[in-house]
Write a structure and sequence with these properties.
Blueprint lengths: L1 H18 L9 E4 L1 H11 L1 H22 L4 E9 L5 E4 L12 E4 L2 E4 L14 E4 L3 E12 L1 H69 L4 H36 L6 E4 L3 H4 L2 H7 L10 H21 L5 E13 L12 E8 L7 H67 L5 H36 L2
Parallel strand pairs: 1-8
Antiparallel strand pairs: 2-7, 3-6, 4-5, 7-9, 9-10
Helix pairs in contact: 2-4, 3-4, 4-5, 4-8, 4-9, 4-10, 5-10, 7-9, 8-9, 9-10
C-alpha cells in the first residue's frame, strides 16, 4: 500500500513538472538618450513607416506613367474550327471559273492548283475543305500624347510633395518623442522631490503622535498632519500614475514592444539647454526651410502645370504598331492562307471641335492656379507673423521656467525649514500645512513651466524646419 502511494505521488510530481508553464521572458530593456529615442522612433514608428510606403507608392505611380509611353507588346493565339464545313465553288461561272490554270512569272509558267479541291458529287463544282486553323500573333504598339508627357511632370511634382510630407512626418515624430521624453524626466524629478517631502512629513507625523501620547501636543495637530501626509501621498500616487501613462505613450511613439522597459539616460538639464533656446529665437526665419511652405510651392507648380495639361487636349495623338502573325492549318490540306505575316501601321489624330469644353477646362485650370498663388502669399504672411509670435512665446516660457524653477527650490527649503522648526515648537501646525500646500502648488507650476518651454521650442523648431 505504501509502495503504491509512493508511485502515485511520483506520477503526480512528473505531471506537475510536465505542465509547469515556461518562465516568462524578461521584458526588453531599452536604455535611450533623447537622440537615440528619436532615431528609434524614426525607424520603428508605424505612422512614419506608412509615410515611407507613400513615398514608394508615388515612385511606382510615376513609373506607371512613364511605362505608358513605352512600347507595349502583346502575344495571342487564335484557334478556329469550322466543324467540317467545306467551301464549294461552282464550275459554271462561279469563283473557280475565274481562277486561271497557270501564271507566268519571269518567263516561267507555274500551274495553279487549289489544294484539297475536288469535284463535288452533288453539284459538280470545286470543293475546298475548311480545316481547323490556329493563328499566333505578336503585336507591338506605342502611342504618344501631350497629356502623357505632362503626366510625367505632374507625377514628379506629386512625388516631391510626398517626400516633403515624409520629412514633415519625421519631424513631427521627433517632436512628439521629445515632448514625452521631457515630460517623463520632469515627472520623475517631481516624484523624487515629493517622496523626500513625504518622508519628512511622515517623520513629523510620527513625532507629533508620540508628543500627543506624552501629553505635550494636542490630537488636533496630529490629525492635521495626518491629512497633509495623506494629501501628499495622493499627489505622489497621481504623479506615478501619470508617469506610467507617459511611459506607455513613449512606447507607442517608439513603436517598441508593449512590454519593453524604458530607461531614459539624458538628464533634464541637457534637454532644456537655455542657451540653445535663446539662440533659437534669435536665429532668424528662412521660410524656404518650412515644410508647409515647401508644400505650398509644390502645389503652386502643380496648379501651373495643370494649365499646361489642359492645353495638351489640343495636341495630336501619335500611334504606331507592328504585328507578326503565323497561321497554321491542322490537317493534310492547308487551304487558303490570306493572313499576312508582317504588318505595320501608324496614325495621327488631331482634335478639332469640342463645343468649348477644352476652353472651359483651360479657364478653370487658370483660375485654380490663381487661387494657389493667393493661398501661398497668404500662408507666407501668416508664417512670418507666426514666427514672431513663437519667438515671443519661447522667451516668455523661458522666463517663466526660470522663475518657477527657483520658486520650487525656495519652496522646498521653506518646507524643510518649517518642518524642522515644528519639531522644536517654533512653527505652528498651520505653517506646516501651508508649506506642504505650497510645495505641491510649486511642483505643479514647475511642470507647466517646463512643458510650456518644450511646447514653444517644438513649435518654433517645426516652423523653422529643424
Amino acid at each position: 500500500m505504501i509502495l503504491k502511494r509512493k508511485r502515485i505521488l511520483a506520477l503526480l510530481a512528473a505531471i506537475v513538472a510536465a505542465v509547469q508553464p515556461l518562465k516568462a521572458q524578461e521584458p526588453t530593456t531599452l536604455s535611450l538618450s533623447l537622440k537615440q529615442a528619436q532615431d528609434y522612433a524614426v525607424e520603428h514608428n508605424y505612422t512614419l513607416q506608412n509615410s515611407s510606403l507613400e513615398v514608394k507608392k508615388a515612385e511606382y505611380t510615376r513609373w506607371q506613367t512613364i511605362a505608358s509611353m513605352l512600347p507595349q507588346v502583346r502575344a495571342g493565339f487564335d484557334y478556329q474550327n469550322m466543324c467540317g464545313y467545306e467551301m464549294v465553288m461552282g464550275g459554271g461561272g462561279g469563283l473557280s471559273s475565274m481562277i486561271p490554270d497557270s501564271i507566268t512569272i519571269g518567263g516561267m509558267t507555274v500551274p495553279i492548283s487549289i489544294p484539297g479541291s475536288g469535284e463535288s458529287e452533288n453539284s459538280g463544282g470545286t470543293v475546298i475543305p475548311m480545316n481547323p486553323s490556329g493563328t499566333f500573333s505578336i503585336t507591338a504598339s506605342v502611342a504618344l500624347t501631350g497629356a502623357q508627357i505632362m503626366g510625367i511632370v505632374l507625377n514628379n511634382i506629386a512625388q516631391k510633395m510626398v517626400d516633403i510630407s515624409y520629412k514633415q512626418t519625421e519631424q513631427s515624430t521627433r517632436s512628439q518623442v521629445r515632448s514625452v521624453y521631457v515630460s517623463i524626466l520632469v515627472m520623475e524629478d517631481i516624484v523624487g522631490l515629493l517622496d523626500s517631502s513625504l518622508a519628512n512629513m511622515e517623520r513629523l507625523e510620527q513625532t507629533t503622535i508620540e508628543s500627543v501620547r506624552a501629553g505635550a501636543a494636542e490630537q488636533i495637530q496630529a490629525d492635521k498632519l495626518h491629512v497633509q501626509v495623506a494629501s501628499l501621498r495622493n499627489s505622489i500616487n497621481a504623479n506615478r500614475r501619470s508617469l506610467t501613462m507617459l511611459y506607455n505613450s513613449m512606447i507607442l511613439q517608439l513603436g517598441a514592444a508593449v512590454d519593453s522597459k524604458l530607461v531614459l539616460t539624458t538628464p533634464l538639464d541637457d534637454v532644456l539647454d537655455i542657451n540653445y533656446l535663446a539662440q533659437l529665437s534669435l536665429g532668424g526665419f528662412d521660410i524656404e526651410k518650412n515644410y508647409n511652405y515647401q508644400l505650398l510651392q509644390q502645389n503652386e507648380q502643380l496648379s501651373k502645370k495643370n494649365v499646361t495639361m489642359a492645353w495638351m487636349d489640343f495636341t495630336p495623338t501619335l500611334s504606331a504598331y507592328y504585328q507578326y502573325s503565323a497561321k497554321t492549318y491542322f490537317g493534310k490540306d492547308q487551304g487558303f492562307n490570306m493572313t499576312p505575316p508582317n504588318m505595320i501601321g501608324a496614325s495621327v489624330t488631331l482634335p478639332l471641335f469640342s463645343s468649348g469644353q477644352r476652353y472651359a477646362k483651360i479657364k478653370a485650370a487658370q483660375l485654380e492656379y490663381t487661387e494657389a498663388l493667393n493661398s501661398k502669399q497668404q500662408a507666407e504672411d501668416g508664417l512670418r507673423v507666426q514666427y514672431n509670435q513663437l519667438c515671443y512665446d519661447l522667451v516668455n516660457a523661458i522666463e517663466t521656467y526660470q522663475i518657477q524653477k527657483d520658486n520650487l527650490d525656495v519652496t522646498k527649503r521653506v518646507f524643510d525649514n518649517t518642518t524642522e522648526k515644528f519639531k522644536y515648537g517654533h512653527a505652528s501646525n498651520l505653517e506646516v500645512t501651508n508649506a506642504s500646500t505650497d510645495i505641491i502648488t510649486a511642483q505643479s507650476n514647475y511642470i507647466q513651466a517646463v512643458m510650456s518651454v518644450v511646447s514653444a521650442e517644438v513649435a518654433l523648431e517645426d516652423l523653422l524646419g529643424k
